[in-house]
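Exercise 3.2. Students should predict the tertiary structure of the chain below and write it as C-alpha cells, then compare their answer with the key that follows.

Predict this chain's 3D structure.
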Amino acid sequence: MMKKKYSFWLILILSLVITSCGSRKYTVKSDTKAAKAADAMANLKSKQLYKFITDWTGVKYRFGGLDKSGIDCSGFAFLLEKEIYGITLPRISRDQASVVKNKNINNLKEGDLVFFSFGGNNVDHVGVYLNNGFFVHASTNRGVIVDDLNLPAYQRVLVKSGSVN
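Answer key:
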C-alpha cells in the first residue's frame, strides 16, 4: 500500500514538473529584425504574394538558377512578377531596371522593384518591395529572404526603384 501511495505522488510530481516546463511562454521582442520582417509579411495585401514568398523562403542562391534547387535574384524577381502580377520581365537585373519607371523610395508599393549596384555603377542585384521598408530577394549568402531596405548596407548601394507600369 505504501509503494502505491509513493508511486502516485511521484507520478503526480513528475507530471507537474514536465507540464510546467512545457507551458513557458516565449516572446520575440517586437523591435527585432525578425519581428519586423514577420510584420511586413503579415501586412501584405496580396495573400498570393505571401504564399509565394513563404514557398520560396530559404531556397539557396544559385547564379542563373530558376527553380527551387537554386535561384538568383533576377530569376526570383522574374518568377514573382510573372506569377503574382502577370508581368513578364527581362531575365537579367540590369535589363529589368531598364523597363522600370523610376519612383521615389518613399512612394514604393507592394510589388515594386528595388535595384542595387554592389560592384560599381551597373545594376547587379534586384529585390521586390513589400511594405514598411522591407523587400524580398535572393541573397547570395542567405538565399531567398525578407530583408530591411533601411539597413545602411542596402542604402549605400540602392541605385533605382520603381514599377513596371
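Discussion points: Residues 16-28 have pLDDT under 50 and may be disordered. The CA atoms of residues 56 and 141 lie 15 Å apart.
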